[in-house]
Amino acid sequence: MRRRDFVRASAAFATGIATRPRRARGAADHLADVLFRGGLVFDGTGASPIEADVLVVGDHIADVARRIRRTTSVEVSVEGLAVAPGFVDIHSHTDLDLFVSPLAESKIRQGVTTEVTGQDGSSIGPWSPETATMVRERYRERHGIDLTFSDLAGFFAQLERRGTAVNLASMVGHGTIRAFVIGDENRPATPDELASMRRLAEEALAFGACGVSTGLEYVPGGFANLEELVSVAAALQGTGLPYASHMRNEDDHLAAAVEEALNVGRLAGVPVQIAHLKAQGQRNWWKATPILDTLMAARRDGIDVTYDRYPYVAYSTGLTSLFPVWARDGGIDGLLGRLASPDLAVALERAVRSKIAQLGSWDAVQITSTADESVGWAVGRRLGALATERNEEPYDLLLRIIRDDRGRTGMVGFGMSEENTQAFLAHPLGMICSDGSALATSGPLASGTPHPRSFGTFPRVLGHYCRERNAMPLETAIHKMTGMPARRLRLDGRGAVAPGAFADLVVFDPDTVADTATFSKPHQYPVGIVHVLVNGAFALEGGERTAALPGRVLRPARA
User: What is the 3-state secondary structure (H, E, C) of 437-476?
Assistant: First the structure.
C-alpha cells in the first residue's frame, strides 16, 4: 500500500472506531490490544532504527520483534513510517491550561506525550492564601473552573480527577517558594527564611516534583544570591534530580550566568539542567562555542550538567523583561514609579535602548498578547513598524503599552542566530524542549499571536533540522526528545520503545513531518504525525483527535 493510501485508510479506520464507546479518561482508556506492523522503530536510546512490529497490551509495550505472530483486535500497518517513544517536553509551561482544555491539542498533535512543567522558577504552588484566591477567582471568572489547590500535591490530585490527554510531571519553582516565604522584596533571605525555603522544596519533592527550577531574570527569583540558590537546590541531594535554571542572563553576561549555574550544582552537589540555552543578541553570537566548551569542561570536572533548547531563533517572555530586574522590584507599580522618577527614568531608558541595540532593532520585538483590549491593536505587530505607522517614538510607544496593559503584555524577541540554534540542538549535552504551552486553533486557548513553538517544536526538529539541514541523524534527535529527558528526570518506563515500557508512542512519516506554524500565523498544527498513544490509548488516530484522556501525573523514581 502506498503511504498516501495508508494515511487515508488509517483516517477511515480511526473514524470507524471513534464511534465505539470509550471511557472519558483513566489508566485503562484504550480500545483493545494494538499491534503495529512493519514500522521503522526508533527505541529512544539513539541506536539505529530497525524494522519491527510493536505489540501494545493494556498500557504497556508487550513485545518488539521483527515479526510478532499474534492476532489482535486492532492491527495497524505502519510500513514506511517511524515508530518512536512519545516525546517528553522537558521544559513546558502547560499546567493550568489543562483545566481549560484537557485535550492538550497543540502538544498531542506534535507527538508530545509528557509535559514537564514548573519551569523558570514558577510552579503551581506553594501559594499564599492571597495568591491562591487571586488565581481561583481569575479562572472561575474567565473559564468557569473551580481550582481547589494551593500546592503541587493539590494540583496533582485535581488534575488526576479531571483527566488529561498528556502525562504531566512538574518541578517546583524557587521563585514561587521565595514569593511564599519573602514576597517580592529585593533583599537577602534570613537564615530562618532559607530554612523555610529549603523545607518547602523538600516537601514538593516528597509530593513528586521532578526537580527545582529557577527564573533568575524574573521577579522575585532574580533577587536571590548564590547562598540562597545553593540552599534551596541542596534539597535535591540524593534524589538524582536536577537544579534547572533559567539563568540570570542569556546575552552580554552569559558566561558569568553559566558559571553561576555550574557553581550552584557544584556547591549543592546536585545535577544542573540549563534551561533553553542561547547566546542572545548579535553581539553575543560568538559566545556559543566557548559556552559549549565550558559545559564540556565542567562535565570532565565532575559536574553533571546538560541543557535544553527549542528550535527557533526567537524567544518569548513578558514585555517588561526589556527592563532590568531591579527596576521590576515591586511589580508593575514599582516599575511605573521608577519610570516616573527623573533620577531613574534616564537610566532605565538607556538600559532598554541597549537591550534593543543588542537585539538589532525595535523590529526584533513582536507583541504576542495583551490583557487589556485597549491595546489589542498591538498584538502580532513589530514595535519598530508599529511606531512608524503610528508616528510615535518606539520607546514612548513601549512605555504606553506597558502602562495601559499594566505590565501584562507578552513579546517575542528575535535574538538568536540560525547557526547557533542548530549547534545547540545537535550538541550531545542538549535536549529538545518547546518552552511553550498546550494551545489550540480555536476556543479560549487560541488567542493572541503566541510563539509558534507551542505548535511546531518537535516536528520542526524532525523536518527542518534533521531532514532538510542534516543537523543530526533522526535517531539522535529522537533520543534528545525521549530517552534522554526521561532518564534525566527519572521517569522510569518512559521515553523507550521496549518490552515493559509504558505505551507512550508516536508514529510519524519521516518524509513529510514538518511544522506549519509561523510567527505571523502561529495557530497551525504540524503535518506528518499519524498516531499518538498515551498509556496505550490512542490520543491521535490517523491524524484525527480522539476524546481519550489517558494521561497521568508522573512522579520520579527514587534514586
Answer: CCCCCCCCCCCCCCCCHHHHHHHHHHHHHHHHCCCCCHHH
DSSP reduced 3-state for 63: strand
For CA atoms 380, 386, 392, 396, give the dihedral sign.
positive
Tell me which residue of 272, 317, 518, 288 sits closest to 407, measured CA to CA.
317
Distance CA 214, CA 224 (A): 10
Task: Measure the CA–CA gap between 169 and 156, rounded to whole angstroms.
Answer: 9
Instruction: Please give the angle made by the CA atoms of 298, 304 and 305, to the nearest 5 degrees.
Output: 70
Are 314 and 460 in contact by the 8 Å Cβ rule? The answer is no
Main-chain dihedrals φ then ψ at residue 321, nearest 5 degrees: -70, -10
pLDDT of res. 511: 98
Q: What are phi and psi of 34, to 5 degrees?
A: -125, 135
Q: Name 505's bridge partners.
A: 85, 533
**Domains of the chain (ranges plus CATH)?**
88-317+415-445 (3.20.20.140), 323-412 (no CATH)
- 173: alpha, beta or left, given left = phi > 0 and alpha = psi -120 to 50? beta
Q: 192-242 pLDDT, tens per residue?
A: 999 999 999 999 999 999 999 999 999 999 999 999 999 999 999 999 999
Say which residues have a Cβ less than 8 Å from residue 518's Cβ, sequence separation at least 6.
452, 524
**Number of Cα atoms under 13 Å in the Cβ half of residue 238:** 4
pLDDT in tens, 280-289: 999 999 999 9
Query: CA 164 to CA 170: how far, in whole Å?
Result: 14
* Cell numbers given for 144: 468557569
Residue stretches of the chain with pLDDT short of 50: 1-31
Query: What value, to the nearest 5°, has the Cα angle with vertex 321 and ends 253 and 174?
Result: 80
Residue 16: burial class (beta carbons within 10 Å; 0-12, 13-18, 19+): exposed
The cell for 164 is: 488529561
